[in-house]
Amino acid sequence: MIEMYLAGISVRRVEDVTEALWGTRVSPATVSNLNKKVYGRIDKWLNEPIEGNHPYVFVDGLWLKRCWAGEVKNVSVLVAIAVDSSGFRQVLGVREGAKEDHASWAAFLRYLKGRGLKDVKLFISDKCLGLVESLAEFYPEAKWQRCVVHFYRNVFTAVPKGKVKEVAAMLKAIHAQEDFEAASDKIKAVVKKLQLMKLSKAAAIVQEGAIETLSFYSFPSQHWRSLRTNNPLERLMREIRRRTRVVGAFPDGESALMLVAARLRHIAGTKWGTKRYMNIDRLQEQLLEAA
Description:
Elements: H1 2-7, H2 11-22, H3 28-46, E1 56-68, E2 71-83, E3 89-97, H4 102-115, E4 122-125, H5 129-138, E5 143-146, H6 148-156, H7 164-174, H8 180-196, H9 200-209, H10 224-227, H11 231-244, E6 249-250, H12 253-268, H13 271-274, H14 281-290
């Protein structure tokens, strides 16, 4: 029953299945009590020490609905995954946040740092001001990479539909350059071209924010494709949304958090977490050369 629930089957459907199998309908309270037993193990997993070094960390937030004083309101669940010093992906932590603001992100990073997250070289995320400010506070030596895909979407909000394809090609050319200097020069060229196209708002967005998407150039070229975007975490978030959509509104923040964490723990134990994601030796070699 627990496996069915975590796999995305609604409580009502679990009741139907148990009735078909055993001739007895299991109540929602029984399913809830079984899940609470699992929640104890999940909570322990979420608070275990983070061992080893994790040079690349991906962070993002997920909005869910919960019942609060008879009303349905939004609650954010903050998630961090990482690539460890052996090149494997790990789920680092999951925490409830009232909203994706400075206080919520600061509490989340404090939680990760308190459990032992260290030696982070690069954080990859969308541009959430509360997160960017908190990173500077808790991990001042780490670089920050703004997700290229999210940046493109921000630019497209200031581009007419008929010109999106052309502008997309211009933006992709920035991140196809051979090094940081060439990409920086390409930004200037793209800004100038956007201005000539009378897309002054889009030009301003590129001029102000494109430089934030170039941090990946500081790392081995073999890793660039994996570091430019937050896609490794976005794929997990889509899986979580698929599962939580079945629930609709959660009765409280804890149940939302625990279901997300339980699903992530399950994914971490599959091929996702047991197959080497990248050759991290390239980074170690680069760090030794720079020392």
